[in-house]
Structures are given as structure tokens and as C-alpha cells.
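Re-run requested by the PI after the first attempt was lost when the workstation crashed. Everything re-entered from the original request form. Ligand of interest: magnesium ion.
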Amino acid sequence: MAILSGIIGLPAVGKSTVFDILTSSAPSRHGQVNIGTVAVPDSRLDYLWEIYRPEKKVYASMEVMDIPGLNPKEMDREQLRKFLEEIRRADVFIHVVRGFRNDAVWHVEGEINIKRDIDIINTELILNDLQLVETRISSIEETRKKKGISSETEAELSALLKYRKALEEEVPICSVELSEFEEKAVRHLGFLTSKPMVLVINLDEEQLSKGYDEREYVHNWAEERGYKLIEICASLEQEISELDKSDQMLFLKEIGMEQPGSMRIARAVFESLDLITFFTVGKDEVKAWVITEGTNARKAAGKIHSDMERGFIRAEVVSFEDFKACGSEKEAKKRGLYRLEGKDYIVKDGDIIQFRFNV
Ligand SMILES: Nc1nc2c(ncn2[C@@H]2O[C@H](COP(=O)(O)OP(=O)(O)OP(=O)(O)O)[C@@H](O)[C@H]2O)c(=O)[nH]1
Ligand SMILES: [Mg+2]
């Protein structure tokens, strides 16, 4: 399961800067689609590495896509449509909004206005979905007139009508409640506002420390829609990421941050997709694995190897918190904190697991 995050936003708001701090790879090239891999930093894995000291430490990873800015004023409908087609592949959006003031950096609307900029992008996503909904509704109604429709299509239509009502009120599809049957019936349609979104407000240093005018508004806006919100200063983060690891932490402390922005964004992406992490440890490597919340032990084993899923016997599990409180595997075992779990055990975030299997 390679997760793909799509970075969206108006032109010159700091999207590529965010991409660069996330991927810490070669700088993204201007004016084209760039895809990079993000290792999702996790201090728990760092801790386990300190204890086991294996050769390898493997963080969970995801892919992120950087695209040129969406500019409804300059793009015609066809260009806009192509642009939105590109981002439809993403599982989740990272929407970068400019807050930073800097006369040297051009703004497509001529001045900084966080609320308006959020609306511009959001409106495009909503209009695109609305068009898809309308097209689908008329095609279903056409078929119904000609030869009638199945109960699945009936459910699809009823879901689409709910979607239309929401979108007309500028409510994203992810906020619409559907029955299980309806949900199944529309799953094949790739809507944009059904995807989770992480809102990244790209501020300057003063705004970051002292606050900014639209702060309350954007926090409410995100909360109402269930979107996560991260405030960062991307250019500052970029400078920090060029420092030594130990200097990085010092610098972050100085500006009152506990974690680099890249880590906060990556975690927000994981949370908005209901993803959790479990760990495997050993002499060769410590590794973080990504699964959807609610996955059972047997399926989780299958992430590592299909043989492990097929020949699953049981899982030996300790929570990261319990392990850390003991400080070693030996001590945790002595205190009886390792549990034996069967195939239906629902894996929890932070579980350290050893699978027993038989092939
Ligand atoms: N002052 C300041 N400048 C920033 C910040 N983030 C980005 N910039 C600058 O803004 C300009 C545009 O940044 P990019 O990251 O290229 O923006 P983009 O959204 O990828 O732009 P397009 O791909 O052209 O749409 C660059 O000159 C950055 O150095 C910030 O937090 N503060
Ligand atoms: Mg860019």
C-alpha cells in the first residue's frame, strides 16, 4: 500500500518548498509533476533502534506528489480539468496556503488573504465534484427511463443526490453520511472532496510566533470539515533541515517547536487516513509497518510476508509504552507484559510484534 499525498495550492505559496522539506531529496523541478518518497519520522522507532542497535532502521514511508500551482484565473476549463485529473490519483491532499509576507514573492491575487485563497482552491474541488455528480445523475436517469435500473444503481443515485445537496452548500463529500449500501455504490467514482485534506498554513516567522489575523477562522474552517491543520514556516524549516541533526533539535526548541514541520505533516497525513504503525524488532533491523486502523493480527502479518499470513499461528505483542517503561525486552518479559494474541487480535498503534508462523 503505497500512500500518495498530493500537494495542492495556488501558485508560489510554498508547495515545492514543503515538498523539499518532506522528501529531503533533490529539489523538485519547477513547472512539472514531481514524486518523491517520504520517510515518516517516528521517535518510537528511534528509541527501539537505540535498544536493539541493529544495522538497519526502516521508517514507514509514503509518496508525495508536487504539482504546479492551480491558477483558476489563468487556466482555461480544459487546463483546470487536466490539472485536477492529475491530483485525482492522490489518497490525501496537502493543501498549502500562503500566509507569509514577502514583497519579493509574487502572489497570484496581488495580496495575502488566507481565507480567500482557501476558498479559491476549495471551490475548484467542489465544482469538479459537482460536475461529476451531475453527469452521473443524468446518465442514471436516462437509463432508468429506457430500461430501469438495479437496486445498486438506485443506491448510487440516492447517494449522488445527497452529494449534490452537500456540494451545492459548499460542503465537501467527506462530511456526508451514507448508508453502507450507498457507500458501496459510489465507491467506484473518484471524487476529490471525498479525500482527506491536511491544511498547511505557510507563515513567516513573526506570524508563527505572534499569531496572524485569520487564525481563528482557519482553525474553525478546518475543524468543521474534519481536516487537520499544520502551521509552519516552510523556508525556515528548509534552512533547519540543512543543519546537523543535533543542531536541528536545538534550533527547533529555540523557536518553541518540538518536532520539525515535516514530521508534523507526515503524521497528520497518516492520521487523516486512519493509518497506524506497528513495529518489528531484531538483530538485523527495526522496522515500522503501516496498516489501517482495525486490521487484525493475521492481516498485519501478511504485510510482512504472505507466508506469515497463511501460516499464522500467533502474535507475541507488547505495547511500545509498556516496553519503554521497562527499558528492555528482558525486563518486559519478566514483568509479563508480552501477550500472546490470536489471528483476530486488532493491532494497536505502537504494538511491537513478533509473529509465529508455520509454512
Ligand atoms: N518568506 C518566505 N518565503 C517562502 C516561504 N515558503 C516559500 N517561500 C518562497 O516563495 C517562493 C515560492 O516557493 P515555492 O515553494 O517554489 O512555491 P510553489 O507553491 O511550489 O510555486 P509554484 O510551483 O510556482 O506554484 C520561493 O521563492 C520560496 O523561497 C516562507 O515560508 N517564507
Ligand atoms: Mg512548485
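Saved to the shared folder this time. Residues 15-16, 30, 66 surround magnesium ion (ligand 2) (CB under 6 Å).
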